[in-house]
From TrEMBL:
Residues 510-588 form the AMP-binding enzyme C-terminal domain. Pfam families: ACAS_N, AMP-binding, AMP-binding_C. Belongs to the ATP-dependent AMP-binding enzyme family. Residues 65-445 form the AMP-dependent synthetase/ligase domain. This is Propionyl-CoA synthetase. It comes from Actinocorallia libanotica.
């Protein structure tokens, strides 16, 4: 039996042995005597009597082992432009001071800190500072509007908000502080304090109770790592659900550290001293797990890049960073490669750089389409590895375990389920489907370490959203199939979540923004295939009778409403006025049928359709979209 099969079998057959063994990758102040506590199922607790500190594991222990002078973090901003390096010792000391500053502002164990920062080292420092004192961070992606930030502030109820004065997008400075001010006007919760990292590109005005990072962090008394229970919360990360209200995915400390440290070796084959770069954003789960925690937990060097794959300044940006820092493994989203391919299809920019250090490219966030896979493989000449996971799962559900047993790549497949993930394909009744048949992807409980513990403050929603559809299983919301060799192909969401340029968005939130326009009677938003972004949202609106709306103005107003309420990242460009929306007799809009038509599939509408002519009339519009490669 190969190393992968053996590990997989053991992880499901004897999870105690498998995960207690993996727990040795972490330094615990109190080593757990048990791996799994299932007494409160479906709320499982991993390493219930273990105690540790994540920041100690990510920083101090490497310094104590003599690696204080190794680079921990390299910041490269193509936007400023600027570069900065932190050794493990420097990063530990800076994190300790930031932790001391937060403590002096009254932040303690279990208190929440909302972080609204772009890709600057201080974002990573704040996250690690929270974990150092047992506080719970909740990072909010900078591309969201004030309203989205307000919803998250109200849900997380932070004691302190740490923000940057601005983010830098191509051709535009995004002033974070006015967005935060507006969010605080909209929210009913008030944090005690706000700390602002002032960036020269747009300094913010500070009000009473608000502090400049420079005034509170550098002079703060350093805080030591505080041991926390393995089952204590580490962070909350909001993600889009099928309704407009985001879900606060809650991750707990001990199992998170174990799973990420294990994945770094087994999945990515990254060891201490390696230079690793994840080209994502700290506002997404990929950033949490693989920009911040995993690389530092194993003593690697993490590259933090502020910039885009193209235009900052050109399509060679990624290759410059790889060559400049000797990146060994790169993790990015397929959409980033597609934009590079579009601008530089023959790799003229790529040819300018020495990419000799690069030994593998990992892709996630959306399906790696075979064409992009082929292009990247040809251009880079290294293994290009797709792997599948979600904010909820925290690390790969299915991957090619490069450090355990590299497996042959099949383009279009995310390879095989990782240890701990008992993946099944079922029909809508929960009946398991044989190889070759596409169905809903579900995971048998318990989920392994590193997966969400619950939704912050809402156990009921956790059960209802993920565990109630198929008894004893977690519903991923994705569809896919296994082949005869046990390889998993993930085809896309079966719900109203869409994935735009690797950004996960809720169509419900976009619909709410469109519906707020006074001329709109009702609307539906569906994700339609896009050759570069994977999907883009397309809004269909029905106007109120007698609505006095000039078509050109209305389109612009609706796009502006989405930008105002959800944020620029929703990237709504296309809104079409239609006479009616197809519905069932009970009034449910047939989004799934429209989605299928837009994706080029001729799905039969349900028999309960109210007026088939409405759907027929929309078919030419829905089929207009260019198919995904
Ligand atoms: N702060 C503020 N605004 C942001 C933002 C941020 N952090 N990120 C994106 N935006 C804005 C963009 O400026 C753009 O605004 P515009 O409409 O005024 O031009 C809008 O949101 C849409 O952005 P996006 O869809 O990201 O398009 P883009 O052209 O800026 O970039 C990519 C395209 C492919 C480079 C980019 O989407 C990307 O890198 N995606 C990968 C995402 C990722 O890493 N996901 C995690 C899974 S690995
Ligand atoms: P997020 O929670 O933002 O990471 O988005 C998770 C969703 O992105 C998944 O449910 C999938 O729909 C999609 N996704 C992520 N990675 C992949 C992949 N490798 N293949 C197919 N879909 C993916």
């Amino acid at each position: 039996m190969g190393a992968y099969s053996e590990a997989y079998r053991l992880s499901l057959g004897d999870p105690e042995r498998f995960w207690l063994d993996a727990a040795r990758l972490i330094d615990w102040s109190s080593f757990p005597t048990r791996a799994l506590d299932d007494s409160g199922a479906p709320f499982y607790r991993w390493f219930p009597d273990g105690e540790l500190n994540t920041s100690y594991n990510a920083l101090d222990r490497h310094v104590e082992r003599g690696h204080g002078d190794r680079d921990a973090l390299i910041w490269d901003s193509a936007m400023v432009p600027a570069r900065r390096r932190y050794t493990y010792r420097e990063l530990r000391d800076e994190v300790a001071r930031a932790a001391g500053a937060l403590a002096s502002l009254g932040v303690g164990k279990g208190d929440r800190v909302v972080v609204s920062m772009p890709m600057v080292p201080e974002a990573v420092i704040t996250m690690l500072a929270c974990s150092r004192i047992g506080a719970v961070h909740s990072v909010v992606f900078g591309g969201f509007a004030a309203k989205e930030l307000a919803v998250r502030i109200d849900d997380a109820r932070p004691k302190v908000v740490v923000a940057a004065s601005c983010g830098l997008e191509p051709g535009r400075v995004v002033r974070y502080k006015p967005i935060l001010d507006e969010a605080l006007e909209l929210s009913s919760h008030r944090p005690d304090h706000v700390v602002v990292l002032q960036r020269d590109q747009a300094r913010a005005e500070l009000r009473h109770g608000e502090y400049d990072w420079q005034d509170v962090v550098p002079g703060a008394a350093p805080a030591d790592p505080v041991p926390v229970a393995s089952t204590d919360p580490l962070y909350i990360l909001y993600t889009s659900g099928t309704t407009g209200k985001p879900k606060g995915v809650l991750r707990t400390a001990g199992d998170h550290a174990v799973a990420l440290a294990w994945s770094m070796g087994a999945v990515y084959d990254v060891r201490e001293g390696d230079v690793w770069w994840t080209a994502s954003d700290v506002g997404w789960v990929v950033g949490h797990s693989y920009i911040v925690y995993a690389p530092l937990l194993v003593g690697a060097t993490t590259v933090v890049y502020e910039g885009k794959p193209i235009g900052t300044p050109d399509a060679g940006a990624f290759w410059r960073v790889v060559s400049e820092y000797g990146v060994r493994r790169l993790f990015a989203a397929p959409t980033a490669l597609r934009v590079i391919k579009k601008v530089d299809p023959r790799g003229a920019e790529l040819a300018k750089y020495d990419l000799g250090s690069l030994t593998g490219l990992f892709m996630a966030g959306e399906r790696l389409d075979p064409e992009t896979y082929q292009w990247a493989s040809d251009m880079l000449g290294v293994p290009v590895i797709d792997h599948w996971w979600q904010t909820e799962t925290g690390w790969a559900i299915a991957a090619n375990p490069r450090g355990l047993e590299p497996m042959p790549v099949k383009p279009g497949s995310a390879t095989v389920p990782m240890p701990g993930w008992d993946v099944r394909i079922v029909d809508s009744e929960g009946e398991e489907l044989p190889a070759g048949q596409e169905g809903e992807i579900v995971i048998r409980l318990p989920l392994p370490p590193g997966a969400l513990a619950t939704l912050w403050g809402d156990d009921e929603r956790f059960v209802e959203s993920y565990l109630s559809r198929h008894e004893g299983f977690y519903t991923t919301g994705d569809s896919g199939s296994f082949d005869e060799d046990g390889y998993l192909s993930v085809m896309g969401r079966v719900d109203d979540v869409i994935n735009v340029a690797g950004h996960r968005l809720s169509t419900g939130a976009i619909e709410a923004a469109l519906a707020s326009h006074p001329a709109v009677a009702e609307c539906a938003v569906i994700g339609v295939p896009d050759p570069v972004k994977g999907q883009v949202p397309h809004g269909l609106v029905v106007l109120k009778s007698g609505a006095d709306a000039d078509a050109a103005d209305l389109g612009a107003e609706l796009v502006a409403a989405v930008r105002r309420d959800v944020g620029p990242v929703a990237a709504v460009r296309d809104v079409t006025v239609v006479p009616a929306l197809p519905k069932t007799r009970s009034g449910k809009i047939l989004r799934k049928t429209m989605r299928a038509l837009a994706a080029g599939r001729d799905e039969q509408p349900p028999p309960t359709i109210e007026d088939p002519a409405v759907l027929e009339s929309l078919k030419p519009l829905l089929r207009r979209t260019e198919p995904h490669p």
